[in-house]
Design goal:
The complex is a heterodimer. Chain A is of the alpha/beta class. Chain A has 14 helices and 15 strands. In chain A, strands 5-4-6-8-1-9-15-14-10-11 form a ten-stranded mixed β-sheet, sandwiched between helices. In chain A, strands 2-3-7 form a three-stranded mixed β-sheet, with helices on one face. Chain A is globular. Chain B is built from four helices and no strands. The chains are: A alpha/beta, B mainly alpha. At the A-B interface, α2 of A face α3 of B.
Chain lengths: 416, 87
């Protein structure tokens, strides 16, 4: 029988490292969320021409040598940056830590598309002669590449792998880290999500073929979940990794604690390749609440997944109403309205953007709503302007993905 | 190409493959791997760049010729005799 109050069972967040289209650390990211600052711009990509995307501008060489970057991938580079930043933020002295007891759990939506497209383009310059195909291709495209590059860079000899869960992967990375700590497989987890997806044209092309790629004359207005004029997804890159520890270990070293992971839900719709289902999402939210021992009204902030697609946003609102409808003090917001859809990093980044609310007691809004879609008019949707509140104790973070994967993560303001 | 041209061509490739290294002090008679952080994947990169830039095929049995700068120049100069350095 699990003792939920046992400090070995309780898992806490002790460090955050991130890069997003509008910030390369939590302070900058949070400030821009409160100021309503988007990070979307126009870029020009192979075969597609001009598209809108969230691009990160972290310093790739802050923690990587040029040769390392040349050999590896953008996702690896994002991961290495986030890992270093998280460890520095946590105050952990890595060199006096047993690195065989650190696990690296990276959620990714996809991996390998960028490198494969680049190689096919490369050999197209040589009449498709495969002797020009890079010997670096396989280590670049194995699914564990981002986590593996972190392991190589930091000389971490504990387990490392990717968790593939479409756009729920960021939450799933955190959940995996939490579970491995509870099992005592590791003593510290670097967990979260990573995306390099804007560097593939295929994802843009597929969303466009699906009628799901956003366009707006003003790039910063293109990602507009819940707005009547929304017309699709803005793809973004990014990364967010947390240092997770058992509470007992965090307290032993006097760690700063951002929050405690108190519940999560993961399930599958089992209905459609791409269309989300309110029933599966509803069940997932209830699962998370039950695991946390909470009622719906205990939640202070629900951060939605909503990607700005005409249909997907509506389906999520049905699920949210099913669980939180009528609960007066449950505030709802969205981060994709600022940074677009950061794919594998989305869940982890979107949670990070809300964590400072435990201290500053402000709910950041969802921006870019000029005319709220009546079908998305949730009771306590925080629209365009931040909302100060009395207290934030619980944040629930939704992330849903293709093939009907659903996840919800609940983090509690830490108190002993 | 002259021997100097070949040397510069190889330095050009090495500079792209190992951008953190300073090749100014490269000693031609000593093994490249003893002077710089170059592994077997890097040597495959050298072979690939020779192929891409100069259309030269280096069979695996000839890899030992790429061990020092001097051996590179000895091996490559006949193969590059009608070529210009890649820009």
């Amino acid at each position: 029988m699990v003792d939920q109050k046992n400090p070995d069972w309780r898992i806490v967040i002790t460090g955050v490292g991130l890069t997003s289209p509008n910030g390369n650390n939590l302070v900058e990211f949070r400030e821009n969320l409160l100021q309503g600052k988007s990070g979307i711009e126009k870029i020009n990509i192979r075969y597609m021409g001009d598209v809108l995307a969230g691009v990160c501008n972290f310093d790739e060489f802050k923690y990587q040598k040029k040769k390392e970057r040349r050999r590896g991938t953008r996702a690896g580079s994002v991961g290495i940056y986030c890992a270093h930043e998280a460890i520095a933020d946590s105050g952990i002295d890595l060199e006096s830590t047993d690195k065989s007891r650190i696990g690296i759990y990276c959620g990714v939506t996809e991996h390998g598309n960028v490198e494969t497209e680049n190689e096919v383009f490369n050999i197209s310059q040589y009449d498709y002669d495969v002797k020009y195909w890079s010997h670096h291709h396989n280590p670049r495209t194995v699914a564990n590449n981002p986590a593996g590059e972190i392991s190589l860079n930091l000389k971490i000899t504990g387990p490392h792998y990717s968790i593939g869960a479409a756009c729920a992967a960021g939450n799933l990375g955190v959940i995996q880290g939490c579970q491995m700590l509870r099992l005592k497989e590791v003593d510290m987890a670097l967990a979260g999500g990573i995306s390099e997806s804007i560097h593939t044209f295929g994802i843009f092309a597929s969303f466009k073929s699906q009628g799901a790629l956003a366009w707006h004359e003003d790039p910063e207005k293109a990602s507009r979940p819940f707005d009547l004029g929304r017309n699709g997804i803005v793809c973004s890159e990014g990364g967010c990794l947390y240092t997770l520890e058992r509470l007992s270990d965090a307290q032993k070293r006097g760690a700063k604690i951002y929050g405690e992971i108190v519940g999560y839900g993961v399930n599958s719709d089992a209905v459609d390749f791409v269309l989300p289902q309110p029933k599966g999402q509803t069940d997932c939210l209830k699962m998370a609440l039950e695991k946390a021992g909470l009622e719906a009204e205990d939640i202070d902030i629900v951060n939605t997944h909503a990607t700005s697609t005409p249909q997907g946003d509506i389906q999520e609102c049905v699920a949210i109403r099913n669980v939180f409808g009528g609960k007066k003090n449950v505030w709802v917001n969205n981060t994709k309205s600022y940074i677009g859809h950061a794919m594998g990093a989305a869940g982890a980044l979107e949670l990070a953007g809300n964590l400072p609310a435990f201290d500053d007691k402000i709910v950041h809004p969802t921006i870019n709503i000029d005319e709220l879609d009546p079908e998305c008019a949730l009771d306590n949707l925080v629209v365009n302007q931040p909302k100060p509140v009395d207290q934030v104790n619980y944040i629930l973070n939704n992330s849903f993905g293709m093939l009907g994967i659903n996840s919800a993560l609940i983090v509690k303001r830490f108190e002993i | 190409m002259t021997r100097d041209d070949v040397r510069n061509a190889v330095i050009g490739i090495l500079t792209d493959i190992a951008p953190d290294e300073d090749f100014d002090g490269l000693k031609d008679e000593e093994k490249l791997r003893d002077q710089f952080d170059l592994d077997s994947m890097d040597f495959l990169d050298i072979v690939m760049e020779l192929r891409k830039r100069y259309n030269i095929e280096v069979p695996e049995s000839d890899y030992e010729n790429l061990v020092t700068m001097t051996s590179c120049i000895d091996y490559l100069q006949p193969l590059l005799k009608n070529q210009q350095m890649a820009s």
